[in-house]
Specification:
Radius of gyration: 13 Å
Largest sheet: 7 strands, mixed
Mean pLDDT: 92
Low-confidence stretches: none
Number of strands: 11
Distance between the termini: 39 Å
Length: 122
C-alpha cells in the first residue's frame, strides 16, 4: 500500500485561493496522481490528474485550477484560484496505477488519502 497524505485545505471566502499538496510514499513516478472531490450527498468528482501524457482537468475547474508534480519530493500540488461556494468539498488525492483504466473514474484508483476539507463561503 502506498500512503497518500493531503494538506492545504481550509475555510476561505469566495474569490480566494488555496494550494493543496499530496505527498506520496513509495514508487509512484510511473503512475498518475489525481485529485477528486466530494460534497455531501454527491458522487465523487474528478478534478485534475497528472498523467504520463499530460495534465487533464474537469470542466468545472478548468481555467481556475492548476495541477503539477514535483517528482523529487513525490508530491503533487493543486493550485486553486477564484474559489466559489460550489468548490466546497472534501478533496482527495488518489494513485492511478498504469493500466488500471480511465483516470476520470474513481473506481479505477486503488490508493486514496484521507482527504482535506475545503470550504468556500460568500
Amino acid at each position: 500500500q502506498v500512503p497518500l497524505v493531503e494538506s492545504g485545505g481550509g475555510s476561505v471566502q469566495a474569490g480566494a485561493s488555496l494550494q493543496l499538496a499530496c505527498a506520496a510514499s513509495g514508487r509512484t513516478s510511473r503512475d498518475d496522481i489525481a485529485w477528486f472531490r466530494q460534497a455531501p450527498g454527491k458522487e465523487r468528482e474528478f478534478v485534475a490528474v497528472v498523467s504520463w501524457s499530460g495534465t487533464y482537468y474537469g470542466d468545472s475547474v478548468k481555467g481556475r485550477f492548476t495541477i503539477w508534480r514535483d517528482d523529487a519530493q513525490s508530491t503533487v500540488f493543486l493550485q486553486m484560484n477564484s474559489l466559489n461556494p460550489e468548490d466546497t468539498a472534501v478533496y482527495y488525492c488518489a494513485l492511478h496505477r498504469l493500466g488500471s483504466g480511465s483516470f476520470v473514474s474513481p473506481l479505477n484508483y486503488e490508493y486514496w488519502g484521507q482527504g482535506t476539507q475545503v470550504t468556500v463561503s460568500s
